Amino acid sequence: MIQQAVNLCESGDLKAAFGLTLKILKERTDDVDALILQSIILERKGRFGDAVTQIHGAILCRPKYEDKHNFFGFDYPRMARSLERNLLKQDVAVNHHGLKTDEAVRHAQLLMATALQLQGRDQEALAWYEKCRLGDFTHYLALYYQSLITDDGLIDLEGEILAVDFKDRLDAHEIDSLNEALYAETKGHPTFNREVHREAPYQKWITGDLAESPVKPFKRLHEMIRREVDHLRARLTARTGHPFYGTIPEKYRIHLFGAVLGPGGFHSPHIHSDAWLSGGYYARVPEIGRSDDEEHAGYLEFGRRFLGDPESFRGPKRLIEPEEGLMWMWPSYYIHNTVPCKSERERLTMGFNIIPVS
Length: 358
Ligand SMILES: [Fe+2]
Description:
By secondary structure, the chain is α+β, with helices and mostly antiparallel strands. The chain has helices spanning 2-10, 14-27, 32-44, 48-61, 76-89, 92-96, 103-118, 122-132, 137-149, 172-188, 199-202, 216-235, 287-291; strands at 162-165, 204-206, 252-261, 277-284, 300-302, 318-320, 326-331, 336-338, 347-356. The chain has two domains: 2-149, Tetratricopeptide repeat domain (Serine Threonine Protein Phosphatase 5, Tetratricopeptide repeat, Alpha Horseshoe), CATH 1.25.40.10; 162-356, q2cbj1_9rhob like domain (Jelly Rolls, Sandwich), CATH 2.60.120.620. Helices cover 43% and strands 14% of the residues. The strands form two sheets. Strands 1-7-4-9-3-2 form a six-stranded antiparallel sheet. The longest helix has 20 residues, at 216-235. 39% of the residues are buried. Bound molecules: fe (ii) ion. Fe (ii) ion (FE2) is lined by residues 270, 272, 336, 351.
């Protein structure tokens, strides 16, 4: 179908071509080829802002790892950069117009800031990031990118990504049986297949919320997480105005989920936008990934940007080797992703979010 859409596009029937891409994306929301073609069509129509959004969608679905593995055979992050420049060349007044309206437009502010940042126009970018500070998903992203320009203590990948070793708290046998039970219960959970993220080639499954589940291993893990989070909250010193230390919640709920990755599976760079603290407990880790030091297959990675070319990233990064029995916690606005797994053995992370409640 993508070939048909490309033919229509080439023959100048942009409307029909776009209609076909919509059809493809209805079937597969993360179809990279359809996203790229949409971006091409939108660019031809002079809708640079929308074209940028679609190409960023393609980057989100396939970050660095598969830059050229698409139907078109080209480097689409490069295309994103060029589109961002075109977006900037458009009359900035167009972007000013309506910036006070809704979230969609707030997203345009963020794009504008990022485009400026990618061109090294940091001071102008900062001014746009300031406009994004409105307390939603955009706010978190703005914070993150802003921190790459100003060393304002918002990101500390060494000090604020914390490990908790459950092997210090439970004996080896208890850990093993907990991990086995978590794996079996996750795979057998009624929500396990509901949120399949298009199996191939992403190999990723995520359950619904398990926090209220009466199933023993989930309950156990829930309690263990709560204990660690409470210890952490008691240790932290509040700092007014800081997105993490300034918002330590008095009360919170835990959102708990199981995330399974198969061979080749990965999580694209993302943040957990409505939480204060996020984390993951490794219940099952592929053997091969652990010994693959060169490519860090299956590692948890912090600091890869996801707007613009992932390769043009400036700023700190941190790679974390997954290990069964270990839990990691970090401020929810830290961008993170998984390096694609290689092993046939599935990888199970029990992810969680600490969500403030009033
Ligand atoms: Fe995550």
